[in-house]
Amino acid sequence: MKYKVRVPTNIALLKYWGKSDEKKQWPANDSLSMSLDLYTETVCSLHHFENKEGTLYFQSDQETGTTPAFLHKALEHLRFLSNSLGFKDSLYIQTHNEFPAGCGIASSASGLGAITLAALACWTNSSSFEDLEKKGFTRERISKLARLGSGSASRSLWGGFVHWQRGENPESQKCEPLLDAEHWNLRDCIVILSEQEKTISSSEGHRYAHTSPLFEPRLAKIPQRLEYLKKSIENKQLAHMGALIEEEALEMHEIMASSNPPCVYMTASSFDFLTFLAKTRNETKLPMFFTMDAGPNVHVIYEEKNREKVLEILKNYQTIDVGISSGPVLSRESYV
Ligand code: PMV
């Protein structure tokens, strides 16, 4: 049997940047994301060719940009899962991103989410989320396990809008779906300004965040920003949401740039694009707002009804335009 999963990547509207406990992947603050119709597909099966327990055979699609750093992280995570959960069966895993190589889209959320889900389905012989739950793996538990591979992966276990709550201690943190994909026809047009891999990984960046003088003041603002953001999503108020997510993205990049050592992910092209977007929005009055990840590329968030106009405005850029994902899918097939 082979177990196939498709797990969406996600874009944070309220960012996770900085950890209170690195080992337990306890974030310094809550975050809130939107799952995107852009997936990592992973196929996993038991490997019977050798009589060795716990061996992992990993094959990834070079063309879709699975980097050595990702492979290292993925293997380390699989070993951790197998050791901590006591699954000894050897696995054969094939994984690829359904988005082109080097397009600057963070693949660790969907990638680590997909590997976690596929391995658990295979080890427990589960063909659905209901099946996994019967075997003790609720979606919440899978999300917690994925989190240990990459923090943002914990949010990719659901579609729509997802809230990662920090909680009072590392054990009480959890992810929760807020509203499903059908709630609001939002889209994300990702503007690719650079295809280069980032020089400072997000794991390193998280570590330095605390050294920025802007870090503590930001944490104090988060609870209120989260409440406003949730309300703007519930009430589908794009202008309100837009102002909040832009402030949030800029603040994260200010913290990155003012940490020690500094992590500068924005480039001159990012600034040029943000200037262009602000000017065009002013002229056209079209509601479209930006957010950014730990990289130079820009996500333009807008409503489906304005798709044609937004794509016309962005036609001179390299873009990937996607809607909101309904969440991961899992299936079991037999090898014929
Ligand atoms: O999951 P990580 O460790 O790659 O961190 C993700 C950090 C950001 O993408 C910048 C923000 C977020 O909340 O996804």
Description:
The chain contains nine helices and 13 strands. It has helices at residues 68-85, 108-123, 129-134, 139-147, 202-208, 215-234, 238-257, 268-284, 307-313, and strands spanning 2-14, 19-21, 26-27, 31-46, 56-60, 91-97, 161-165, 174-179, 186-192, 288-292, 298-303, 318-322, 329-333. Strands 1, 4, 5, 6, 7, 8 and 13 form a seven-stranded mixed sheet that branches. The longest helix is centred in the C-terminal third of the chain and has 20 residues, at 215-234. It starts with a strand and ends with a strand. The model has no long low-confidence stretch (mean pLDDT 93). Bound molecules: (3R)-3-hydroxy-3-methyl-5-(phosphonooxy)pentanoic acid.
User: Considering DSSP H and I runs of 4 or more, what fraction of the residues is helical?
Assistant: 25-40%
Q: What's the shape?
A: globular
The topology string of helices and strands comes to EEEEEHEHHHEEEHHHHEEHEE
Percent strand? 25-35%
Instruction: Give the CA-CA distance, first to last residue.
Output: 9 Å
Rg, rounded, reads 20 Å
Strand runs, count = 13
Q: Bound small molecules, which ones? A: (3R)-3-hydroxy-3-methyl-5-(phosphonooxy)pentanoic acid
Mean pLDDT across every amino acid position: 93
Biggest sheet descriptor? 7 strands, mixed
Low-confidence stretches: none
Number of helical segments with 4 or more residues? 9
Helix/strand/pairing category:
alpha+beta
Quaternary structure annotation: single chain
